[in-house]
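Comment thread on ticket #2218

A.B. wrote:
> Attaching the input chain for the structure job we discussed in standup.
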Amino acid sequence: MNEQNVPTRGKPVSDPRARIAAGAQSLRDAAYEAIKHRIITCTFRPGEYLNEAFVSASLGFGRTPVHQAIDRLMLEGMVDVMPRKGVIVKPVSLDEIMQIVDVRLINECHGMRLAAERAEPDEIKHLCDILARAGQWVEVRNTEQLMLLDREFHNVLARASKNHVLADTLSKLHDRSLRFWFISLNRPGHHAHVHAQHEAILAAIRDHDADGADAAMRGHIEEFRNNLTRNI
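C.D. wrote:
> Ran it. Output below, let me know if you need it in another format.
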């Protein structure tokens, strides 16, 4: 008997097909995160055409995971596929971001009410750690690091709502907002202002103050809207 087929006591037999599927999925997810990161940091610029072969070669992924990642990004509204032309990074649209802001105001403020009621100590600790790291980057005005920490902060808040559908929706909305953050919100003093807004949101969550969390997030998103109208 082939010893590879002998079950080990207490351990399930590993299915090679499952391992292959898991590997393919991990490559697809890694390609998706790598391409999305370059879109939200404007390394892949708004309106730029993306050649799948070039993206595969430059990022070190095969054509299949890159193609799957681009399909996913198209569904999430970050790229468009143009017939006979190829893939294009979705251009910046003020109308689009204003619609995203409207949806965030409805959903994210509700999520903060839930998070204030349901956040667990480990989640609050995680939020405190994010803001501690962000404070260091504020001093040197590192826009990319602050943007990534902003994303992490909002995602942890969304998960603290304990509503998985809402958290998934908010994550996608926030990812679509980030490149606008990167493009328009880099004026002197802005990073410190955003950091203070995040601290106000965290204080309300820590105090389990649903009204305060709602108000703090509403002010944060409205300020984002105001900055966009001034800078785009």
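A.B. wrote:
> Thanks. Noting for the ticket: The two ends are 69 Å apart (CA to CA).
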